[in-house]
């Protein structure tokens, strides 16, 4: 085994918060590996940080009327806080906007330039005449030539995952203005991946066949088989790391050139002058954890950069995961079809291990996986509560009942080697199997306790020693659950250590040791909690949101007059309103519609307080079929206007109007 391990986790992009797809893709797998190696006594460094350059940041800033630095500052803070609260603690969580990173990336670039690695190429690039600027890859959208997805970016298609060049797009258009771009000459510096492939990458990747995951190796070989082409490492932008050479005014580094160098920067920040030990010493093993959309950058482009520079270690392993879907559909941040980590932490306080467990149990290690809230509930209730938590609680309760909480004298029955299966799985980066092996400890404990049945033995004085042996054995099984829980369920491990009254798991449970009172490690997840989460993911419908399409959306297809006259739209007055219990977005509203009152459920609670809308006159669709939401029958719909940016406005008459008046 190497003397030390450097673990990197793919830098999350600082244009928004992180969701469970990010957790499953790289954060949880890297954290498990880090905890495992630390428990085995290895010297380990765990680094990450936020990736804060690139076009999506500038687009987000423009949309929110901010400068890019404001956007990345806000998201870096949110991401780092969420990960810390989730129990993922890096030795260093850096930022690519840090001055040290800019200097590190510039030094790296300068070395390659000095060694004449780059090819300086003048070519025609897409240019937006209205915006008067060259368009970086992410500023260009069009139809993917591989899967025909109409909104593929110039550097990568989010539909099929294929990395490409803007010139490969069909019908390209500018993301800034929507105009078709023109071609204009500009000079950039290219990394000659074609020659590096022949000279280095082919042999190096081929040598990884027996120890890289098949999905990683297969994707690499597919790229190499197609043949690599020179790729520009500079861009015509004003947001990023400045290119430190002459004749490169208004040029910044390609974000995928400077981002992986962020691992080196984070190592420098964590270790100071010792950073070369982690990047250049032969006794250090480097492991990159990431999602499948980043495989090419960590197995081809970054290794090509390191090789061309010289003197750096190359990654030993790149155990990339596939994608995690949500409720049968791809996670979509634009449609808010996601479980955001910071929201989960707020809505399920103290339940970090529950989410860790469920995601670990379905990690998309070699193929895409699906997270569902019902599965989350079932795994927590039927496995964590009923198996693991139940066993620990029974053992501690019986210890206090039979021995007043004092560990008895006795012999430990022979136990399986729980560590062997766990270690074998984690050494192969099969963390789902590692979790299964961990849960076998609790399953074995439950069976052993049930088979031995000390509650029956205690009735006969001749069996007192058997009872003591059983409880002592069970306490050691509980200890093993806590010990290996440091890898998979760190908060639970800490609770068990506290119950066992141990300063650390290196301490032994011996006769006379006092055990603390039991506490429930997990609690059942109720149906209402799950229903609320599923409701949040349900696509917005008129009755649930009472919101018209944003005025930036295209007009819907034409309808006939006969279709319009079917709608019964009236003026109504709000006479009562209250929040719907356990539904943050919903208000229960009572309307005066003239001849009668009507009750509707409207998804506007995050925009309006109930007491502020009493007496408000609104536009009401009266003949919409009723539907039940949270047990309340909603009859009709309040019509709203949604402004650009998402704020809502009631559609109301200019003057007080009699309730029930028909709008036509």
Uncertain runs are: 541-552
Query: In percent, how helical is the residue content?
Result: 40-55%
Largest sheet: 7 strands, antiparallel
What fraction strand? 15-25%
| Total count of strands | 24
Question: How many H/I helices?
Answer: 20
CATH class of the largest domain: Alpha Beta
Write up what this structure looks like.
Helix content is 40%, strand content 17%. A hairpin with a 2-residue loop joins strand 20 (627-629) and strand 21. Strands 16, 17, 18, 19, 22, 23 and 24 form a seven-stranded antiparallel sheet that branches. Strands 3-2-1-13 form a four-stranded parallel sheet. A four-stranded antiparallel sheet has the order 5-4-9-10, with no helix packed on it. The protein has three domains: 4-118 and 192-321, Rossmann fold (3-Layer(aba) Sandwich); 371-499, Isoleucyl-tRNA Synthetase, Domain 1; 540-663, Beta Barrel (OB fold (Dihydrolipoamide Acetyltransferase, E2P)). With 664 residues, the protein is α+β, with helices and mostly antiparallel strands. The model is unreliable at 541-552 (pLDDT under 50). It is built from 20 helices and 24 strands.
List the helices and strands and how they pair.
Layout: E1 4-9, H1 20-39, E2 43-50, H2 55-64, H3 68-85, E3 92-95, H4 99-114, E4 119-128, E5 133-134, E6 140-143, E7 152-153, E8 170-174, E9 182-191, H5 193-206, H6 214-226, E10 231-232, E11 234-235, E12 252-253, H7 255-271, H8 275-279, E13 284-289, H9 295-309, E14 324-326, H10 341-347, H11 352-361, E15 369-371, H12 373-403, H13 418-427, H14 431-452, H15 454-457, H16 464-488, H17 490-499, H18 527-537, H19 542-545, H20 561-564, E16 569-579, E17 587-592, E18 597-602, E19 617-621, E20 627-629, E21 632-634, E22 637-642, E23 648-650, E24 662-663
Parallel strand pairs: 1-2, 1-13, 2-3, 14-15
Antiparallel strand pairs: 4-5, 4-9, 6-7, 6-8, 9-10, 11-12, 16-17, 16-19, 16-24, 17-18, 19-22, 20-21, 22-23
Helix pairs in contact: 2-3, 4-7, 5-6, 5-9, 6-9, 7-9, 11-12, 12-14, 12-16, 13-14, 14-16, 16-17
